[in-house]
Amino acid sequence: MTTSSVETPPRVIKYNPQLDGLRFCAVLFVVCYHWLPIISSHKVSHFFGGFVNFFFVLSSYLITKILMSAKDKSVTLKFSKIKVILFFLFRRTIRIFPAYYMFLALVLIIPGIGHHLKQHEVAYFSYLANYYIFFAEQWPLATSHLWTLAVEEQFYIFWPLIVIFIPNKYLLKTFIAVALISIVLRAIFYQSTTGFFPQSILTQYCLDSFAIGGILALKFTISKEQERLIDRFFHVSLLIGIPVGFIIILTNSFYLSFVFNGLIISIISYMLIKKAIFGYKGLLQKFLENKVVLFLGQISYSIYLYHLVVPVVFWKMFDLIYEHLNLTYPQFFIEHDNNIVLLVKIMSSQLGCFIIYSIITITLSILSWHIIEVPFNNLKNLFNPGLANKPKG
Question: Where does the chain cross the membrane (predicted)?
Answer without folding.
Answer: 21-38, 44-63, 99-117, 170-189, 201-221, 233-249, 255-273, 293-315, 354-372
